[in-house]
Amino acid sequence: MIVQSLKGIGASAGIAIAKAYRLEEPVLQVEKGSVENIAAEIQRFTAAINQSKSELEQIKEHAFKELGEDKAAIFTAHLLVLSDPELINPIKDKITTEKVNAEFSLQEVANMFIGMFESMDNEYMKERAADIRDVTKRVMSHLLGVKIPNPSMISEEVIIIAEDLTPSDTAQLNRQYVKGFTTDIGGRTSHSAIMARSLEIPAVVGTKTVTTDIENGVLVILDGLTGIVIVDPSADMVKEYEETKAAYEAKKAEWAKLLNEPTVSKDGQQVELVANIGTPEDVKGVLENGGEGVGLYRTEFLYMGRTQLPTEDEQFDAYKTVLERMEGKPVVVRTLDIGGDKELPYLNLPKEMNPFLGFRAIRLCLEEQDIFRTQLRALLRASTFGNLKIMFPMIATLGEFRQAKAILMEEKAKLQAEGVVVSETIEIGIMVEIPSTAVMADQFAKEVDFFSIGTNDLIQYTMAADRMNERVSYLYQPYNPAILRLVKMVIDAAHKEGKWAGMCGEMAGDEVAIPILLGLGLDEFSMSASSILQARSQILKLSKAEMNAVIEQLLNMDTAEEVERFIKEMFCS
Fold first, then answer.
1. What sign does the dihedral 159-162-165-166 (CA atoms) show?
2. DSSP label at 353?
3. Global confidence as pTM
4. C-beta of residue 225 within 8 angstroms of C-beta of residue 240
5. What are the φ/ψ torsions at residue 181 (nearest 5 degrees)?
6. What residues act catalytically?
7. What does the pLDDT look like over 408-440, one tens digit per residue?
8. Inter-residue contact 524 to 296 (CB < 8 Å)
9. Which of 144, 174, 268, 303 has its CA 20 to 30 A from that of 467?
10. Helix, strand, or coil here: 367?
11. What domains are defined for the chain?
């Protein structure tokens, strides 16, 4: 028998074995129609909005009980969408001026917003498109009188098969019965993937064909560790995966014991395992996973999904909340990193041929100083509430760093003159993500307090390969000796000046990279919160001295494949 196997993205770790349950989306067929009684049509539309709000309030309450406040916040955002005049008023205007039915007006306006967000080359903004699609689909179902599926009614053990899962679908999943899910589309950063990790159920997304290849009721093995979905497996396969599942659950139980333990290598060398976050709500996950601090707070999420810049007070509240919740543990805040794949429509910046190499991050902040100074004032005001470190992104020259630091010092002096107390122990560092900065790290190290290596961009810039381009994705090589040599230059330069070096790119939480980085002397590893306990377990079994002894050998290898093979054979379980 030929067993079919589908490959996707492992979005939530774990293994599930159960029957397939196809979550069929309703057909919401919209036809354009003319209306005579405009007031009645707007009333019908308003009623559908109110009915949707009522349902979302119930889903939000369920999410709060099952998933916690931070995940329930998604539905607060959905409720705000349904109250947003920028979405609602154009729909009413279309009904009024064109005398067309509410369904058609809703579809036209919603598709315009969805298209706008989806065209942005940024995962976060694409998720805003998913939010609008989810919310407007609910309103449309009420206008058309079509019932939408309710996953909370599932009453047997299943693996859900769907084109995609909306946040409201995922929030209604009952983990007693839903053992995992797999979708045609999506990525690790989609709402459904994040919620799957919160529910601690396995998920494989982005398979492209799972809805066409899997029939309702067929037995499925879902491997969220490798991103594999096996359709109609043999008895031997089921037995093998049951053993793998048991072994993984035993590992998780062992990792959980390390929650409050320090991160110390087998030969007694201590490092810090910290987390990357995007919002104050993410702090809960950091603490629940034993994070020793925040290594990267991506502040751009404060600026996204809105129609105007956040005020100084709004920013102050967010930074203060994170610092207080971390209770004295270090928090590295990256100043605004907009541009490249992250756009703010309300800034009306000109389109660029190559935005990743263009007017972005610190370059934008040094020119648009009002935006930069507002953020710096908010950070400085919040600094007394915890252990704040400020990091400038995309620094290419010493001149940029000096100018950014000078602006920070100016704002500090102004605040102090106003009688505002500012911490005197704020460390000021830079992200190392440009090869020229890595090469000049010895000079930077004399002036910065720390480095944090942003490998996601450092790799694409060094290899001249856009990491968003699937055709050159083979060149995204974190283990390439060229990358390792640059990382070594940065760490060595920091240590020579008595400074510390961290890493906040995906590489920091990579099982193959961790032994190499330990051997290179990396002081701080910043990763997804859910990766921390596994990384701690791995480091406890590694000897820094043993790893350091093979570093020169690795740096002189010819290819990334050779490095990966060597590490897997010698140091990975």
1. negative
2. S
3. 0.72
4. no
5. -150, 155
6. 191, 504
7. 999 999 999 999 999 999 999 999 999 999 999
8. no
9. 303
10. helix
11. 4-25+150-235 (3.50.30.10), 38-144 (1.10.274.10), 255-570 (3.20.20.60)
